[in-house]
């Protein structure tokens, strides 16, 4: 189709290579985010376990892992 003597490209129907590439990047970003969340969750869990252990040790009057560092 032409407008004012210039050729205009029609957008093809269906996914284009660019759209497929974009979807792949979104999938990769989602996987990286999921992995980062799992790592953060694991670190938080470890810290909470250490804090719980420390609190329990303080209640019983025993030395704990934080004090031994």
Gist of the model:
This protein is mainly alpha-helical and 69 residues long.
What order do the helices and strands come in, and which of them pair?
Elements (H helix, E strand, L loop, with lengths): L1 E2 L2 E2 L9 H44 L9
Antiparallel strand pairs: 1-2
Explain the overall architecture.
- With 69 residues, the protein is mainly alpha-helical.
- Helices cover 64% and strands 6% of the residues.
- The chain has one helix at 17-60; strands at residues 2-3, 6-7.
- A two-stranded antiparallel sheet has the order 1-2.
- The longest helix has 44 residues, at 17-60.
The N- and C-terminal alpha carbons lie at a distance of 74 Å
Helices, by number, come to: 1
Structural class: mainly alpha
Order of adjacent strands in the largest pleated sheet: 1-2
- Kindly provide the radius of gyration, computed on alpha-carbon positions and rounded to a whole number of angstroms: 28 Å
Strand segment count: 2
User: pLDDT under 50 segments (min length 5)?
Assistant: none
Q: What is the mean predicted local confidence, pLDDT? A: 75
Q: Topology as H/E string? A: EEH
* Binned strand content: 5-15%
Q: Which bin fits the share of residues in helices? A: 55-70%
Which word captures the global form? rod-shaped
Let me know the largest β-sheet.
2 strands, antiparallel
């Amino acid at each position: 189709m032409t407008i004012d003597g210039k050729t205009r490209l029609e957008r093809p129907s269906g996914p284009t290579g660019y759209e497929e590439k974009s979807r792949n990047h979104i999938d990769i970003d989602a996987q990286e985010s999921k992995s980062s969340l799992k790592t953060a969750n694991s670190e938080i869990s470890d810290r909470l376990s250490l804090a719980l252990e420390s609190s329990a040790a303080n209640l019983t009057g025993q030395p704990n892992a934080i004090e031994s560092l």
